[in-house]
Amino acid sequence: MLRLNSIHLIILALSTLFAPVRGLSQDYLFSKNTAAYISLTATNSINNGVVWDDEEFTVPIGFDFELLGSLYSELLLTDGLLMFGQDNDKIISAFGYANIGADLIDRAGNDTISKSPINYELSGASGNRIFKIEWNNAGFYDDQNPYADSINFQLWLYESDGTIEIRFGPGSVDTSSYYLINGPIVGVGSYDYFFKFFIDGVFLFGPANIPGSVDTLITALTGTPDSGTVYIFTKNYSYIHPEKSEVPDNFIPSVIHDRLVVNGILSSDPPILLIYDLSGRLVFTGNLRDINNTIDVSSIPSGIYFLKLIFKERIILKKVIKN
Questions:
Q1: Which residues make beta-bridge pairs with 321?
Q2: Which of 31, 130, 138, 276 is the most buried if burial means most Cβ atoms within 10 Å?
Q3: Nearest-CA neighbor of 286 among 278, 302, 297?
Q4: Please, are residues 183 and 64 in contact by the beta-carbon 8 Å criterion?
Q5: 250 in a domain, yes or no?
Q6: pLDDT given at position 115
């Protein structure tokens, strides 16, 4: 079992305290709901019977999922942590981060066949698909009574609007099974491995059944969420990040018809174009590779839309009216 040593923990704690607050918490709105926990049925195995403890698994999402300004078609899973991107610097912590908090393991012990299967499934039609991962009967490395405690939970990624859900099922967890703190670490963030802090993110804190959220700092919950608890992270499309800027009309017009014209694109930094309706539903995605681009949007109904252009170093937004 890998552990961060005490020096790394001190660096992590200090870096979080003094990290620059640039966060994207305004881009994600947190809410809590309840729903009956239903185990996945049409599943594909991730660990394929392998007893896991810090093993890493690459999992296809099944569609392009937007997370913190980038699109991803696969993720890297280790324990209760999901990592995205070539540098694995975009993170969803479903239950534990960097072996702090909930250090999950397979409950197989010395057996050679897994007793804690990790499965995934893809449901729904194209454009409205949901990617789901389920941890079944996961154990805790720090359990004082080895392999006595367990937890079941799922993570859902929504294709249509980028929503992230973490759904908790039945389990039995003593707080002594958490490492250094008294509950799981749950949140979404972009991690800087060089400086060892989150430059963007939103994490939960407080009692597990009535949590709050905080920007950038790595915080933890107290206790374990009850079965049926659903944590929801939804995108806030009405928020303009301080590093994002509105686009002048000579770049993208404020009123469009059947054709959307985007001018002034540099060939050295071609962006991804995403178009959302007022409900946050993604209605168009494409790559802009020319200096001047004309996109057919005749199939999109009339209304108000948010356009997002994702460049290498910046993101810009534009609200448009389609007649």
A1: 255, 304
A2: 138
A3: 297
A4: no
A5: no
A6: 96
